């Protein structure tokens, strides 16, 4: 079998040679590999295929895997963190990479805390370990024993907690004074628009091996994948080359997949992709992966009988006159919120400007349809009421439900979210400025 558009050079015995032979071997691997039946489980299976330890490996256990400034992250540290993340069920698709990233973050967090003179004492660490263990309804001793059964040392747990406590103190001391949450911020947070929707996708996948002996053939296949211009082309390549269990279906994963269920290195690019776009190559444990977005949809599942609107309604006599249309244009350029609509009602009857509120289903249909097009503080002037031009301005659109949080609670959530965002930006800056070296 040859690559489409590329012929194998026949040898003297009539068999393919060089890259053609490697490609034949690759196809034999694909045909015989049990991994083709397991789809995304491929990465897990390959991660489990490990060679037995040797004396040389034991000697290298404490050799540096990475240095971050003057801090050493050993191979032992990495192995311990991998097992710790597995116990917590929070590892990524590439466990070693995930472990190194976490340990690097903690190294720069420790350095920054040291520069600021921030420390944690033994009692704080013990309390932090107890607090963390309590999340699993265990005492510290029980949690440490459970970790030990999975090969994780107590010191690994302690170091993890200590780094978290140091960063919590850093964040608490450095950022609160820089954050303010206004009443307007609270109102915006209550707006239905602020309720995050749920995105789900239909995707196809191709998994290729990373074995060195197939490198040349895989490189050619990668070129074909990256040049694919349609879902059908990608599907055909998946049928011919993919190791994934979805190969026989052309790489298609048949069910909708919530984006939040995908690993971070996949979910980010997929959520921003357009249908037909190919994402990759992405290095997973023992595999090279490509994904193609076939379809995407977002839903917020908000029933209309729970959405409450508050809006201003202004009647301008004269209908769609040039004068009124000019006034509407002026409103759009000058009015920033519902309170600013008042001056445009001067000289009009008292009931020309009214404020209304209610559930969407209970509003006049003509108003509800127009308001559905508006975001908060936007203006519509598309309908008339008798000889009057109807100007609508949406003030708020909120979800009504039992036990709605108070304004103070919303303010606290916004405050914590902004603190977290600032802390994450600072963390990325620290990593970027650090002297990171791999061994």
TrEMBL record:
Domain (PpiC): residue spans on this chain: 198-295
UniProt-listed InterPro entries: OMP_Chaperone_SurA, PPIase_dom_sf, PPIase_PpiC, SurA_N, Trigger_fact/SurA_dom_sf
Keyword RNA-binding on entry: no
The keyword Chaperone appears for this protein: yes
GO molecular function, one term: peptidyl-prolyl cis-trans isomerase activity
Region annotated Disordered, chain positions: 1-22
Keyword terms of this UniProt record: Chaperone, Isomerase, Periplasm, Rotamase, Signal
Pfam families linked to this entry: Rotamase, SurA_N
SUPFAM superfamilies: FKBP-like, Triger factor/SurA peptide-binding domain-like
Gene3D superfamilies according to UniProt: 3.10.50.40, Porin chaperone SurA, peptide-binding domain
Protein name: Parvulin-like PPIase
Organism taxonomic ancestry: Bacteria, Pseudomonadati, Pseudomonadota, Alphaproteobacteria, Rhodobacterales
């Amino acid at each position: 079998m040859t690559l489409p558009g590329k012929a194998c050079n026949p040898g003297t015995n009539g068999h393919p040679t060089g890259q053609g032979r490697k490609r034949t071997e690759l196809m034999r691997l694909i045909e015989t590999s049990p991994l083709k039946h397991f789809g995304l489980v491929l990465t897990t299976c390959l991660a489990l295929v490990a060679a037995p330890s040797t004396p040389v490996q034991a000697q290298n256990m404490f050799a540096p895997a990475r240095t971050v400034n003057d801090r050493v992250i050993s191979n032992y540290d990495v192995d311990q963190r991998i097992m710790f993340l597995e116990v917590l069920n929070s590892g990524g698709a590439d466990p070693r990479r995930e472990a190194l990233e976490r340990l690097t973050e903690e190294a720069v967090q420790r350095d920054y805390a040291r520069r600021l003179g921030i420390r944690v004492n033994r009692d704080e660490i013990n309390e932090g370990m107890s607090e963390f263990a309590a999340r699993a309804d265990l005492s510290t001793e029980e949690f440490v024993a459970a970790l030990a059964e999975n090969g994780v040392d107590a010191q690994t747990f302690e170091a993890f907690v200590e780094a978290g406590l140091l960063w919590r103190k850093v964040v608490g001391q450095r950022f609160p004074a820089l954050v303010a949450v206004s009443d307007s911020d609270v109102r915006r947070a209550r707006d239905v628009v602020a309720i995050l929707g749920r995105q789900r996708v239909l995707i196809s996948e191709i998994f290729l091996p990373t074995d060195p002996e197939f490198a040349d053939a895989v490189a050619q296949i990668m070129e074909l994948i990256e040049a694919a211009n349609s879902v059908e082309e990608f599907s055909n390549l998946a049928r011919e080359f993919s190791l994934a269990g979805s190969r026989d279906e052309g790489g298609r994963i048949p069910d909708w997949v919530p984006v939040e269920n995908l690993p971070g290195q996949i979910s980010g690019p997929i959520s921003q992709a357009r249908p037909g776009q190919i994402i990759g190559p992405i290095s997973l444990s023992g595999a090279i992966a490509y994904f193609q977005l076939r379809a995407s949809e977002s839903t917020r599942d908000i029933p209309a009988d729970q959405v409450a609107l508050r809006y201003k309604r202004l009647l301008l006599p004269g209908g769609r006159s040039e004068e009124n249309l000019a006034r509407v244009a002026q409103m759009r350029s000058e009015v920033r919120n519902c309170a600013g609509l008042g001056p445009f009602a001067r000289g009009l009857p008292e009931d020309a400007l009214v404020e209304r509120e209610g559930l969407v289903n209970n509003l006049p249909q003509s108003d509800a349809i127009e308001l559905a097009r508006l975001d908060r503080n936007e203006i519509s002037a598309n309908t008339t009421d008798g000889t009057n031009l109807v100007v609508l301005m949406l003030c708020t659109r909120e979800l009504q439900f039992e036990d709605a949080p108070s304004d103070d609670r919303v303010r606290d959530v916004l405050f914590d979210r902004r603190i977290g965002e600032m802390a994450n930006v600072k963390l990325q800056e620290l990593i970027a400025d650090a002297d990171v070296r791999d061994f």
